[in-house]
């Protein structure tokens, strides 16, 4: 029997979630909610043949009794969604990225998961796309030897594509703890973006507890992927080990070089052909995690809070802390410090 999902949101990316549910094997979409004034929730529900539509999340949860609430709405609506459905038997929440817009909200969501009030996964669905999944397996299997260095880039800011980029690097390194982070930001007018208020330029070095380094460039500090014209496809991650390297781009090529074997393999990496399968796989895995917590999920709150912490450490470093050692918690004051620097 399939798990039941209630989707919160009716915009462009929420509609892509609807398409992904149509391809899912283990979860079905039973209702649609959008709490924002002016949202065309009824029209979208009719367009996709969804039998239930509402503008009140709590009433919708009571009506359709979903196992999973999928929040693909405005990033301002994360913690509020969890609170609206609290105590109504929801087994799992899938929160689109970013996890939160402020550290305080992120830590409240994390506390709710630790207190048993919610189980959460975050929508870093790119990890399920074909070439990214293969890259993770090559690194995990040790084909390249121990990884010593990562390089990663994107042209979206830290709360746009940057959330995916940071999380992907941590995922490839199996979410090992970070020892320290150093970062710098610029183009602070990016804080004016409603959906992703963050500096539009960032660079950072992450140091894992095994001394492996990762160097990241984001936003206007990112570099263009050769042959790629689409802004949102300017995303790449490279990993260098003792016996080889691997490089992947969001919409160009995966390259695997094994030095001791003398082999070089290239294959296509294509967003248009892979994104739907990746999102469906993420949602099916979320359904399995909802049914049985023991199976886990690669974008669980336990993992996702680590990548969010890395972003906050970049903020803290840029706000004047220099080399930021981890673990530690960050408050909303770091955002205020960056805003003050902008002023």
Structural features, described:
With 343 residues, the chain is an alpha/beta fold. It has 2 domains: 146 residues, NAD(P)-binding Rossmann-like Domain (Rossmann fold, 3-Layer(aba) Sandwich), CATH 3.40.50.720; 167 residues, Dihydrodipicolinate Reductase, domain 2 (2-Layer Sandwich), CATH 3.30.360.10. The chain is globular, with a radius of gyration of 20 Å. Helix content is 36%, strand content 24%. Helix 7 packs across helix 9 and helix 9 crosses helix 10. It has 10 helices and 15 strands. Strands 14-13-12-11-7-10-9-8-15 form a 9-stranded mixed beta sheet. A 6-stranded parallel beta sheet has the order 3-2-1-4-5-6. The mean pLDDT is 96.
Descriptive keywords:
343 residues; alpha/beta; Rossmann fold; Dihydrodipicolinate Reductase, domain 2; 2 domains; nine-stranded mixed β-sheet; six-stranded parallel β-sheet; 10 helices; 24% strand; globular
